[in-house]
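Complex record, two chains
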Amino acid sequence: MDLKPGSRWKSAVCDGEFVVVRPAKSPVSLEAGGHQVIPHAAERPGDLVLSDAHAAGSAAGKRYADAETGLEVLCSKAGKGSLSIDGRPIGATESKKLPASD
Amino acid sequence: MHTALLLDMAADAAPDRLALGGLADGLTFEETRRRARAGAAWLARQGGQTVAFLGLNGWAMPVALFASGLLAEPFAPLNYRLPNADLNKLLARTAPSVAVVDDDMLHRLDTHAGVTVVARSAFEAACAAEAADDPPWAEPDIAVLLFTSGTTGEPKAAILRHANLTSYVIGTVEFLGADEGEAALVSVPPYHIAGISAVLTGVYGGRRIVYLEAFTPEAWVDAATREAITHAMVVPTMLGSILDILAERGESLPALRALSYGGGRMPLPVIERALELLPHVDFVNAYGLTETSSTIAVLGPDDHRMAIYSDDPAAKRRLGSVGKPLPALELEIRDPDGKALGPNQSGEIYVRGEQVSGEYTHKKVVQDDGWFATNDGGWMDDEGYLFVEGRLDDVIVRGGENISPGEIEDVLREHPNVADVAVLGVPDDHWGEKVAAAVVVKDGAPAADDLAAWVRERLRSTKTPEVWEFRDALPYNDTGKLLRRQLRTEMSAKPAAA
């Protein structure tokens, strides 16, 4: 899977949708709900189920980053599944809220 | 990442929240998205590869911005205050394009090859009436073309890519971070970078945007009251006149929570008066450029309060700074050879980051390693607060000494009889340039000698203006930028009245 910046993906097992903000240093597999994400325009397969080990949820507007590989994604639509890279869960980055300036 | 995705996210998560317009008749996020899709479908049928926009603020502007984004065509808002000849020159440069034009501005336009002109009323009708599916999302590239104000020559077309703008938005704004009742009053025109960023950050933050068609201080205060405005951005010239109206009417805008300002040098007396009149408001000073997708440094509310209530001279002085650079950016002060300088050393401000485009249609000015030279002079204090001295083109070179006009202007603005002032260099046979001041007075008529003594006591004699001119007003463009070049031409032509 080519996780290039700006590319859009969705979970194969829940409503979650994601956009890549920063690419990984080397190719990785990004999963949501325990299954590899699929391109945004693709149809969800009907035969997969959410893995209990990856069901902590993804929140719209949250950024998820992995220090090890450098991959950073923005969740653009919330879903029940949580993200992992090659089976290893990745967490949300802390938001740095700035005072409104526009 | 695509700018239209920002709207998509908000419409998915908060479809029924008001996005644009008044409490009584505003559009929800869902309806805004529907109109953007319908607008995109309609615009695609008109042809062109750029969407030009000539008109006042209103819902059609953000809808046209997102519609152009969906089509992966640049959105090019034009300055309706330009004389017809200049306006037509810019419009011709957008070809091949479709231009959405306010109905009462149609008569100002000539026919241009490759430019299809459509009335705003027709665009609005199509957006409101037509049903449209989510269009196929085209690969995003250039999001916005902004013509710079051209105060120093032919306007340049600055390029802002989807990647620049979205990285700025998701890096600085919390998704739907606004409370349900928050509303931002936008009074900067559609062709100003702050008008573009207001749409994107407002939508992503989930804050309703209320437009003022054209700025007058009375209309601004009326709208702020009527619409329970919580947030607003103003340029320095606007703030002074807004405070006058508030003082006159005895109003204090209880709903207002945050007021940001930028786009030029804010006179200290004005911001001090603002803090006094509106103690419940969080003030934010934002510094940015068109070429950097808006804000790159912010002086926050706490810094403002510290400056007023603290006895620490460093904290007080920071009211004249633009605060600290955004965390997602790198910022350096460099000397003319490009060498990075330390704290308290003055040089040129350089910036690097994903939101920085540093690109025009005719050339890319960002360096290969990503650094962009802003052409602004400045320095940082020991704590990393950035002080902007102004455009390097405006620096006065008097007998080999570089003199920043901003410092002298700040000192003069503290004088009780000075309402407004501009300091600039005029040609001099002996020194190359000499320091000149154009002054607008208030509450009396100070003699030039008194003002010169005022500066000499606070700075030094080489920084004391040698030429003084008293005027009724200084020339500004409509977004609050002083027209220095015009002033310099006028003052250089006249014999010196010392």
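Note: Residues 17 and 28 of chain B are 5 Å apart (CA to CA).
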